[in-house]
Write a structure and sequence with these properties.
353 residues, mainly beta, Rossmann fold, Jelly Rolls, 3 domains, four-stranded antiparallel β-sheet
């Protein structure tokens, strides 16, 4: 089987060698030799040899933290800080532990989410047929059973541009369990080990955006740039979708400074203006609504309670978010009147209202 991923960071392979077929001539979807992955001084994978013949279903079993998710990330080419040799079939896909279906999009539209070009329902239905769900193409996600939702997630993996017959998943099978499996944070190499001025650039494609990040009711966040995905230490970036005729919950972003770019739709950003001159601005202390259009930018200072609203009855609002902290800090609130105290490293900070 042709391969497109090969990592050789050691001069010699393991004694058995690594080819594209098993010793009995069976084509391989995955071949691993002498694989090692460490996070600092913690070696998670050590001297691993693994063959996965094409067409087989393989489950990884082991205690939390033993390296199952780490191995899957390596096979998906999401983690390249390894030693050893890894060869993977050129077409691959990843399925999340939870289905992660957008509730306001019909099943077939969830399947082709993120694909370029016009929506291709036939392509989505073909992928759904492979998992026995073609008859549910026009259903809403909330009407699916747990097993049907997970099969829809697998179909979405099949239809992505880089997808193929091999889908890696993280979590117990067949229901894959709840989100939250153990996965070590990205650990870039020390400057003493590499030239700090000539490290690699990272690309996160639309198809690889991950909903595995902090969420607020009424919207869905997708993580793109983070410590987990690329090793960033002072920046988080992602995408937010707000369904038509929907308002998010009230929340703030902690110590993060947040910049928002409106990609599509006309989202509105609502905050409580308590600091204005009441004689000159009689609406001070009331909710203020900032109306936007595609191409607009919004800046949200740290700790400011706010929410996003999408009043359009038919068009989804999509924005790109950048934050000055490494992860997406989200503190959900009951109302916009929140005024601290702020708990940071165990100490209350006064005057943050």
């Amino acid at each position: 089987m042709a391969t497109s991923l090969q990592r050789s960071m050691s001069a010699q392979l393991a004694p058995r060698g690594l080819g594209t077929t098993s010793p009995d001539g069976t084509p391989l979807a995955v071949g691993v030799r002498n694989l090692r992955r460490a996070f600092g001084t913690n070696s998670v994978i050590e001297s691993l040899d693994l063959d996965v013949p094409a067409g087989q279903f393989v489950a990884l079993l082991g205690a939390s933290g033993c390296g199952k998710s780490t191995l899957l990330r390596i096979l998906a080419d999401l983690d390249t800080e390894i030693s050893g040799d890894v060869r993977v079939a050129s077409r691959r896909a990843v399925a999340f532990q939870a289905p992660r279906l957008l509730p306001w999009k019909r099943v077939w539209r969830n399947i082709i989410l993120g694909l370029p070009g016009r929506p291709d329902k036939a392509r989505a239905v073909t992928a759904l047929a492979e998992v026995g769900l073609a008859h549910r193409a026009d259903a809403w996600p909330k009407t699916l059973s747990g097993g049907e939702a997970q099969r829809a997630s697998l179909a979405r993996g099949h239809v992505q541009p880089t997808s193929g017959r091999r889908v890696t998943t993280s979590g117990p099978a067949p229901a894959f369990g709840p989100p939250g499996s153990s996965r070590p944070a990205f650990s870039p190499p020390a400057f003493s080990d590499v030239d700090p001025f000539h490290r690699r650039l990272h690309q996160i494609t639309q198809a690889n955006l991950s909903p595995d990040t902090a969420q607020t009711g009424g919207m869905l966040r997708f993580s793109a740039i983070s410590n987990r995905t690329v090793g960033s230490t002072g920046l988080w970036m992602g995408q937010v979708h707000v369904a038509p005729a929907t308002a998010s919950g009230n929340h703030h972003h902690g110590a993060s400074e947040t910049a928002i770019y409106v990609v599509s739709g006309h989202p509105q950003f609502v905050f409580l203006d308590q600091n204005a001159d009441r004689e000159r601005r009689p609406h001070a202390g009331r909710e203020v609504r900032v109306r936007t259009a595609p191409g607009d930018f919004i800046f949200v200072p740290p700790w400011i309670p706010h929410r996003e609203e999408n009043p359009d009855p038919g068009i989804e609002a999509i924005v790109v978010i950048a934050r000055s902290t490494q992860e997406a800090i989200v503190v959900n609130l009951e109302g916009l009147e929140w005024a601290g105290p702020v708990l940071t490293n165990g100490s209350d900070i006064d005057g943050c209202s």
